[in-house]
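pasting for the record
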Amino acid sequence: GNFVSTKSGNSNSFGQKLLEDLDTKALSKITIRGEDSFVSLVQLKGGGWLEESFKYEAESSQIQDLLLKLYQTKLGDLVSNNANHHKRFKLVAAPENVERWDKDVYGESVTLLKGDGTIILSFLIGKNRKSGQGQYIRYNGSNKVFLIPERLNINTNPNDWLDKKLLELEEKDVKNIKIKSNSEIKLNINRKTFNDPWLTKGETIMPSEEKIQNVLDKLSSLSFSKILERQITNEKELNPSEKTLLITLFDGRLFTIKIIKNNIANENYILSLRMGILQDSSGKKEIDEKVRIEMESFNKKMNGRFFEISSWEGEQLLMRND
């Protein structure tokens, strides 16, 4: 079908905004298509965004930045109105089920949709201008090729749109840190209160202050670099030695972080996380409803996924020798 680009139909002209006006409440979905990748961002009812291929939260601020960028972009010169020239500017729309993505022909596409599927904006991003700033674009369904003054640089990889934060534990809340290798406890340190010193339990060694501090710092802002597709993590590619980092907080929350070294991911580490609640030994403490809800939503989000982090972060979490 023929898409009508923005409100002004096909009378797009110099100085006009790429996106005339945007009611963000009406915006339901953004799709971005590039070589070997398809990003689908969906606005959730209660606010926030979801990246559909990973079914994982997207980072809202990044989406706001994209919308602002589109809103601030103005059309420059009309360069061509001839469909035969689209190839030259890398502005041919790739067919739905394209066998091989021809880098020199197909443009990346960005589409904004309303909840009922109506298109708010749909355009292709072509090649950069050879001399000087700028980039060529055209609206889907129109033959006109425009130059825009600044390159858009839109991420076409779904991983780049995800909200990368995993944990933000406050240092003062951490009571116990335990590291297990397979099932053997390698390290077990504890403190009575935030102001008390760390003490080692059992036969395990006492790590240096600096190493303890590094772990606490990491836990206060732990992020992943990407989510791994499940099928990649088949047993052969994972290092058999699995380490577990167990973090207990003073309020009884317990985080279990399984850490595996991945031979295929450039020696990076793979994490999986779960949250639990320690029952008070006397059994008298009722689980706080707010904490229980937090646990359920945390575990639903983590849901057996594998997250990749860099090797130095993995070493820090495991308090490896430097």
